[in-house]
Automatic annotation (TrEMBL):
Domain of life: Eukaryota
A cellular component annotation (GO) from this entry: fungal-type vacuole membrane
Keywords, ordered alphabetically: Phosphoprotein
Enzyme Commission number(s) of this protein: 3.1.3.1
Protein name: alkaline phosphatase
Amino acid sequence: MAAHSNDPVGHLYDILAYQETVRTVQSWVDEANKAGWPTLMISVSDHETGGLALGRQLTEQYPVYAWYPEVLANATHSTAWLAKKISFSALPSQPISRQFIVDEILRDGLGIVDASDDEIDKLVSLGARQNVDYVLADMISRRAQLGWSTHGHSGVDVNLYSYPPELTKELFGNRENTEIGQFIVDTMNIDLDIVTRDLNRLAKSWHVTDEKHNPNMQHYHLKHYSVRRVLLTPYSQYINTHH
């Protein structure tokens, strides 16, 4: 969710965690193939979020073609975490302490020691409001000269990773998203009619209807973890035997 907040700190550590995860899965794939179980890995996102760009132009003057990663290295927490800290520290009877913002949020949390009076005043005035997360993210993004085009999804092409190469040659190059699904279907010889039937066996509707029947699903990105549907049918039931 870091990209939705345009939070470069959280985004960076999400990427690093992803790299570690892929490395672990690669090792597992290698072991499975050595044991005689043909196994492959596909990794791709459903969309890009945020429209991240390097070399943000901050003034009307001709821009400097640079960005400053050390700014992100100085931060110790994501802006979402720091926004929560502000929220938990807020009291209805008194405003957020200016010194608390300067010391604990900006200096200790984001590594920012050159905040302007206007920036500090804005954070103090916002207090525990929801968009304080966005303000913190913009402060560190500006100092790193990182640009964002949206808090939503963008049309930027996403990377497609597959492994091992000898089993995933059909995915090389630029691919439409539907080709990835078809590759999985063909490789695993899955009968989609049976899968679709089982997935929708207990469904009340083909679409999200209302909050009464779909709790916590007013927007999927608010709670990615809201619904989990587990298939208990053995995988063998989905093998297409009509070929």
